[in-house]
Design a protein that fits this description.
Helices cover about 35% and strands about 30% of the residues. By secondary structure, it is an alpha+beta fold. It has a single domain (about 5-130), classed as Alpha-Beta Plaits. Strands 1-7-2-3-4-6-5 form a seven-stranded antiparallel beta sheet.
Length: about 130
């Protein structure tokens, strides 16, 4: 891979698919996609900007209760993806979600894009960075 960020939907989907492919080819433990903090509209309270990780066939993300509801709705469009684990520590305000995603790089890329847009409610021009492959 030679580029690591993108700010349009088409570019992001291609970036995510390329990153998934590279992650699989390298057999790396984790691939991480972060949202540029300057583009994150949910960061008003000093929270960490949204991120999504891929570890093999597992997609991992942290969500609030409202985001979890939107995630469950989104997963109806991705029947090959399923929630395997929900962890809500008492000292945290959110939930860590582990999803099994046995699919091709383009389908996973589509899920990432849809999750950032619908679950985290980001604007269409948000910038995403692949920070680990």
């Amino acid at each position: 891979m030679t580029r690591f960020d993108a700010a349009s939907e088409t570019e992001r989907r291609q970036l995510f698919a390329d990153a998934v492919t590279a992650h699989r080819r390298r057999s790396s433990p984790v691939m991480t996609v972060d949202v540029d903090p300057e583009d994150d509209t949910t960061d008003d309270d000093g929270d960490v900007p949204p991120w999504i990780q891929l570890a093999g066939t597992e997609v991992v993300l942290d969500v609030t209760d409202a985001e979890l509801d939107r995630l469950k709705q989104l997963l109806e469009e991705f029947p090959e993806f399923r929630i395997d684990e929900l962890t809500s520590p008492e000292d945290a305000e959110g939930t860590n979600v582990v999803i099994t995603a046995r699919s091709d790089p383009n389908r996973i890329a589509g899920f990432f894009e849809d999750a950032f847009r619908t679950v985290f409610e980001l604007d269409s021009d948000y910038r995403a960075w692949v920070t680990a492959i």
